[in-house]
Amino acid sequence: MSPITFTGLKNNISFAPFEKEIFSYSKKLTIINETLNCPPEINAPNEVWCREFVQRNGLLKGLKKHNPAKGDIVFVSDIDEIPTRTGMKYILSHPPKDYYILNALYMTPNFKFSRDPWYRSFVLRYNDKIESFQYYRDVENTHPFPHFPVVTHCSYCFNDIDLYKRKINSFAHQEFNRYPWTNDSFIFRMHYCRHGLLWPSAHPPDEAFVGEDLVPNDERLKFLIDPNFMLDISRTIFTEKDLPTLCNAENDWFENATEFPPVLKKKFYIGEKWDFYE
């Protein structure tokens, strides 16, 4: 990971609120900090995305400092791409000959709702000729391994409105780092209606994963597997009386909920006008 954030501040690493549980594994954890420039050969649409891409290659640079052996199994994913317990056991018992892209599901706002397959995490056999981790994420793959999902991609799965804001402030999709996506009421409705954060498309219920295969039995993680979990409504323009009809189309914030670019309804303007490209 980069030692600085998108805004140039020091990147503080935290395992809160699980410091006590993780401490027993601390000798097995290595945090790799690599400051990398954005070279021309990185196929990124802009500098923001290039920053994300080079961090993945920075992991490879850091890994090589620990002298991995040829043939070592390397599991590579972003921090929000997490294998299930069953999935990890299956991967270890079915290691790749060379590499394979893993079968995963894109889930939001918790592990009970999903919409799309997600083929980005991968497992490979290490060799010193590997030059890029990002290369494997860019491989077009329609036959992931195995035939059932073994990894979750829960990119916008939080139990607090402020955590959603911090995510929006710090991720590569900086075109969405503004109103209405940073508005408390917008975030609440997105979460309550089980919509994608960036685009108001519904994520249907999904029972692909169940129980402790996803998270340990811990109260602090219940929001990840509770299909009825709701954010703090007191921070919004809504009340409990609004909930029965909150997800109806007339309450959408955009005129064109399934089209791009989005057109905000005038009643949600905070100025004279709103344009996605301004």
From TrEMBL:
Single GO molecular function: beta-1,4-mannosylglycoprotein 4-beta-N-acetylglucosaminyltransferase activity
Any single GO BP term: N-acetylglucosamine metabolic process
Lineage top rank: taxon: Eukaryota
Pfam families in UniProt: Glyco_transf_17 (PF04724)
GO CC term (a single one): membrane
Protein name: Glycosyltransferase family 17 protein
Organism: Trichomonas vaginalis (strain ATCC PRA-98 / G3)
